[in-house]
Amino acid sequence: MKENNRSIGNMAEEVACNYLKGLNYKIITRNFRCKLGEIDIIARQGDYIVFVEVKYRKDNSYGYPREAVNYYKQRNISKVALYYLLINNINNYNCRFDVVEIRASSIELIQNAFDLVY
Fold first, then answer.
1. Which of 38, 41, 62, 99 would be 52's cystine partner, CB 3.0–4.6 Å?
2. Where are the domains of the chain?
């Protein structure tokens, strides 16, 4: 089951990357991991470093995918993002948190989905 979920997650991230590239995002890295957690996609768009969370659901029986990016998930992503900026000495870009919501028949980008959460 875990392996199946992992392959679905990889497929969703691949779809998200291709979608973002079509919107002029430059993918910097995927699946950035550290002891604090993980960020699915880190990209650059114009003057922004964008931290992207990808959420996939085959249907809405458990709610919209974006609803899974709750306060605790936002706080975790924020901490990982700050760590990424620190270790890469990035301080001359604006930052933004986006969510790519993928459902069986649609894909939607929610730009600036949330602010930095401490």
1. 41
2. 2-114
Phi, psi of 63 (to 5 degrees): 95, 175
CA 56 to each of CA 23, 36, 115: distance values in angstroms, whole numbers, following the listed order: 19, 22, 21
Which fold, 2-114? Trna Endonuclease; Chain: A, domain 1 (3.40.1350)
Per-residue pLDDT of 11-46, as tens digits, reads 899 999 999 999 999 999 999 999 999 999 999 999
d(CA 83, CA 91): 12
What distance in Å separates the CA atoms of residue 116 and residue 118, rounded to the nearest whole number?
Answer: 7
User: pTM of the full predicted structure?
Assistant: 0.91
For residue 86, what are its two tokens? 């620190």
